[in-house]
Amino acid sequence: MELLFASAVGLLTACGIYLILRRRSFPVIIGLSLLSYAVNLFLFASGRLAVNRPPLLHEGAAGYTDPIPQALVLTAIVISFGMTAVIVMIALSDHLTSRDDRVDAPAGGAADDGVEAPAAQEDAR
Amino acid sequence: MSLFLIAALPFLGAVLPALLVRASRNAAAGTAAGATALALIGVLTHAPAVMRGEVPMARAPWVPSLGLNANLMLDGLGLLFALLILGIGLLIILYARFYLTRRDPMGKFYALLLLFQGAMLGIVLSDNILMLLIFWELTSLSSFLLIGYWNHLPEGRQGARMALTVTGAGGLAMIAGALLLGQAAGSMELSDIIARREAVQASELYLPALILILAGCFAKSAQFPFHFWLPHAMAAPTPVSAYLHSATMVKAGLFLMARLWPALAGTDAWFLLAASVGLITMVLGAVTALFKDDLKGLLAYSTVSHLGLVTFLLGLGTPAGAVAAVFHIINHATFKAALFMTAGIVDHETGTRDIRRLGGLAAFMPVTFLIGAVAALSMAGVPPLNGFLSKEMMLHEAAHTAWLGSELALPVLAGLAALFSAAYSFRFVAHVFLGKPRLAHAEPPHDPVVWFWLPPAILASLTVLIGLFPQSMAGELVRAAAGAVTAGAAPEIKLKLWHGVNEALMISAAALAGGAAALALHGPLARVWAVVAPPAAKRAFDALVGAATAAARRLTDALHDGDFGRSAAIFSVFAAGLGAWAWTAGGAAPLGAFPAALGPTPPIPLIGWVCLVTATLTLTALHRHRLLALVLIGVTGLMVSLTFSYFSAPDLALTQISVEVVSIILLLLALNFMPRETPRESSAARRARDLAAAAAAGLGVGAAIYAILVGDFAFAPISEFHLANSKTGGGGENVVNVILVDFRGFDTFGEITVLGIAAVLIYALTETIMAGPVRARLLNRRPAEPQAGDAHPMMMVVATRVLMPIALTVAVYIFLRGHNAPGGGFIAGLIVSVAFVMQYMASGFSWAAARQRYPYHAFIGLGVLVAAATGMGAWFNGKPFLTSDFGYVKLPGLEKFELATAALFDLGVFLTVLGAVLLALESLARYAWRPNIASAHPMDIDPTRDEAAQREEGR
Predict the structure, then answer these.
(1) Is A60 within 8 Å of chain B by CB?
(2) What does the DSSP assignment read for B428-487?
(3) CB distance B772–A8 less than 8 Å?
(4) What is the pLDDT of residues B199-227, one digit of tens each?
(5) CA distances (Å), origin B379, targets B240, B512, B781
(6) Which residues of A touch B711 (CB under 8 A)?
(7) Mutate to test the interface with A, among B573, B607, B620 (most CBs of A within 10 A)
(8) Does residue B808 carry a pLDDT above 90?
(9) Could you say which of A37, A108, A121 has the minimum Cβ distance to residue B636?
(10) pLDDT attached to residue B896
(11) Residue B807 · residue B755 · CB < 8 Å
(12) Using 50, 70 and 90 to split pLDDT, how confident is the model at B932?
């Protein structure tokens, strides 16, 4: 069973990383989501796996699984939603302003790009 | 008045002018003056005790493990500086009210001035060297803002930047030096450090600490070779110059040298460094000042020179030198502030500060002339003014000290500095106020209103009074301050005007005569100076900054060529390699050691695994079809959620599945504006490279988690405590929820804040984009494919309307039971979000937005506030932040139920999550919004669009 879990986490990581290495923003976002699953499962499993032992206190329980990784992962899930939303928004803004959804900065002018774009917008206003 | 309150008053006062400036300019100035005056009164109430030799203290531990304590003390030296900072600050506030014009934002000015004042006051009151460093940096930052106050002027911005660079770099040296000093002395409390002179000076850290601290002080106090920033800081408004460069900012370096004098002074290294640098600065500044044609430039270099004088006196390391230094700090503050203010009045009334264009102003502005002349003569060292007294003390010390093996060098150089000092002071009077008028005035200049010249007049009369009656005016203060500087070793002093005919008096007389002669020869001398003058330090500074910027850019370009994939691949492989290295090098628990391993796999998880693997692999293979990728990632997310559920984590399963829904909706909305397909553009080699990097990372992560799962714990888990105390201490049976809202409530508080910030960021991004040209392009956009004729299908609209109350009821149930069963604020917030989003999807954005009365920002803000208020509620019970409490209530007709403050905190979580999710989705949806598609009826069928779609197909 542990091998099954570990292989799933490894696969999610590998697929996530492969997609992150693509050149367009959409696959990168999907890849980040896959990677978030992998990281959340990883953190969750650091408390070891247990079946039918939820950390809900009641009489006659055989035992409880570790609740701390669960609490950490719960907020991590919500935060990774926030992160995904921000990245989606940045990707979308970039696509709409530059009509291009590549994630690579043009060679040489990596730093200047972001500085000039808002100024140009202000002029247009 | 408590020292804490005194130190806090300027900061509290800084808020008021910024808020009150809409009321009136007088209100802004009045509140600033009020806060300063209150602090001044507070300091004065302590003055008698300090004069008696007591040291009032206020102590509060802050981070005691680091040696950082909020300890304040007020000794003689602190009292002297506090009086200067607050007293002159009060005069500056009055002066600035009439100096600034209507175009200058006055609230901002006073807010920054008080911020700076608070930082300075913090430096002189600190008893903890780490806290002193914090205030030290704060003075650098706030003076940057003050010098750059006129940020529309390039000189203002450049001068401010230079001041920040130099004093900030000095601040870094100072931090290192102060930490070394703390190590050497074994304490971070200044009162301890200065009592451990032997330990400090015997330590091998002494020399590095001394060099670093002096570098910081020299940078701050504009000592050679860091002196060049000060003249460029003259681009600031004159009240700022008068404040920063007479009594405060540049005196901070001197203050610290004086403060650490008992611990550091008296060694050869101290004498060689401080006395030499002070001497060079004193001479160089005085000579340069004579040839500056800008009034403020002249005063700036004279300030540099006088600061050098004080550094020199402190550097001598003798108690008598310390007394003279303290006395000169007072005298310099009075005449220099008055002179800067006079220069400001001249500039204000005539419109120029160029000495070559001024002249003969005495006839037009007699009062200003009188003030300027008295202050300038004091600076020249003419008896019976106060500048004369301290300069005599300096010359006396110089005449009796050998330097670099020579008995004669010091008196000659000090006399030379005094000569040029007299010359530029005379020039300030003669070329501005005497002689013939050189400026053609349409309207002759005149003395300003009384409130404008009153502050410098007060200071000028002080120079006379201190000069005539030194012992009664300043004797006690000098004694108390010098006693603090020398840790009680100061000689019994009696300040007096006449010491009889001695070497100092003769040097002084020669210097005054020489000064007058140098002024008479000013024209020829200036021509010589134009040839021999040292090159401008600004050019060297600019070249240095330019070279550093270029080097940084080259390095960045070399490391990162703009290809995101390349750096991400390098990062992945590097991380995997690091993991492999750690695996082979470290001692991990042996595999198979975990006692409760799960054993063989039952069929249900196996099916789930097959689903997850198939979906993920298909997704990766077919990721170019973006819509299909979204469907498949939904499957993966569902399987992850089921995994949580299977392995005893019901809360996680619920959270994951509701987050999954909103994430997919978010991505769908975004996909609406993006290409539907990803083009194939990577070469086979690149794909192989990426595949290898991904495989390495995947194998590494898989192996790591496998090793963790079958290995035993390296340390005993801490969860036993949480399981044992959840019910008894937190009042809840759902341990995960109790951890979130109670044990680790502060984490959760931070996390909901982050979530709220992320949502607001998304909103701000949308606003920016929609304000630009993109909006027009979006409005003119033609959909890529024909849209469904039925925009709001009746079945869906009806179903979502019916589901809404049910969803809300479920959310309330999930929320309420959260403390004892799976659920809670996070999950309830997500469920309500989904219920709302369904309305948007079924009935349209316009319909839903019209029925949405409260902005989602308010939900976020309210949520964070509710959580914070719940946490602060514990204070009223005398408990720390976020301590929770609970009790059981029995209402008639209901079962006994529990009331916990944690539930209120969870309500804050709920509100924030709801607001953040909906604000993010609503922002995205606004891209699609068009002004003319608001349908009167949410369940509409648009026949025109149907026909258009048919025509498209028929073509």
Answers:
(1) no
(2) HHHHHHSS---S--SS------HHHHHHHHHHHHHHHHHHHSHIIIIIHHHHHHHHHHTT
(3) no
(4) 888 888 899 999 999 999 999 998 988 88
(5) 20, 11, 74
(6) none
(7) B620
(8) yes
(9) A37
(10) 65
(11) no
(12) low
The pLDDT-based confidence of B169 (bands split at 50, 70, 90) is very high
pTM: 0.72
Interchain contact A87–B (C-beta under 8 A): no
- A116 Cβ neighbours under 8 A, 6+ residues apart: none
Question: What pLDDT, on the 0 to 100 scale, is given for residue B609?
Answer: 93
Residue A35 structural domain: 2-53+64-103
Q: What is the pLDDT of residues B683-699, one digit of tens each?
A: 899 999 999 999 999 99
Outline where B317-380 has alpha helix (H): 319-350, 366-380
Q: Which of A42, A68, A109 sits opposite B739 (nearest CB)?
A: A68
Strand, coil or helix: B62: strand
B909: nearest CA partner in chain A: A75
Q: Which of B28, B35, B30 is nearest to B5 (CA)?
A: B35
Look at residue B440 in the predicted model and tell me its pLDDT. Answer: 66
In a domain, A47, yes or no: yes
A14–chain B nearest CA distance, Å = 4
Contact yes or no for A21 and B568 at CB 8 A: yes
Q: What domain count does chain A have?
A: 1
Q: What are the backbone dihedrals phi and psi of residue B52, each rounded to the nearest 5 degrees, phi first? A: -75, -10
Residue from B363, B147, B119, B311 nearest B242 by CA: B147
CB pairs under 8 A, 24+ apart, for B198-201?
Answer: B200/B263, B200/B264, B201/B263, B201/B264, B201/B266, B201/B267
Q: What is the 3-state secondary structure (H, E, C) of chain A?
A: CHHHHHHHHHHHHHHHHHHHCCCEHHHHHHHHHHHHHHHHHHHHHCCCCCCCCCCECCCCCCCCCCHHHHHHHHHHHHHHHHHHHHHHHHHHHHHHHHCCCECCCCCCCHHHHHHHHHHHHHHHC
- β strands within B776-928, DSSP E: 886-889, 897-900
ipTM over 0.90: no
Going by pLDDT thresholds of 50, 70 and 90, the confidence category of residue A43 is very high
Q: Where are the alpha helices (DSSP H) in B592-732?
A: 603-621, 626-646, 650-671, 684-710, 719-730
DSSP secondary structure, B259-303, as one string: HTHHHHTTSHHHIIIIIHHHHHHHHHHHHHHHT--BHHHHHHHHH
Report if residue A13 sits inside a domain.
Answer: yes
Site from B639, B674, B742 to mutate, A interface, most A CB atoms within 10 angstroms: B674
A124 in any annotated domain: no
Q: Is A85 on the interface with B (CB under 8 A)?
A: yes
Token couple for B573: 């492989």
B489 pLDDT above the threshold of 80 = no
Q: Is residue A120 part of a domain?
A: no
Kindly report the average pLDDT of chain A as a whole number.
82
The pLDDT score that the predictor gives to residue B945 is 60
pLDDT tens string A77-103: 988 999 999 999 999 888 888 888 888
CA–CA gap between residue B458 and residue B334 (Å, rounded): 9
**What CATH number does the domain containing A35 carry?**
1.10.287
In the prediction, which pLDDT does B948 show? 66
Cα–Cα distance for residue pair B300/B238, rounded to 1 Å: 11
Least confident range from B48-57, B207-216, B404-413, B425-434: namely B404-413
pLDDT tens digits, one per residue of B2-16: 888 888 899 988 888
Chain B residues with CB under 8 Å of A112 CB are none
What are the extents of the domains in chain B?
Answer: 275-523, 734-955
Contact assignment for B623 to A78 by CB distance below 8 Å: no
Q: Which tokens is B27 given?
A: 């209100």
- CB–CB of A45 and B709 under 8 A? yes
- pLDDT (0 to 100) of residue A109: 47
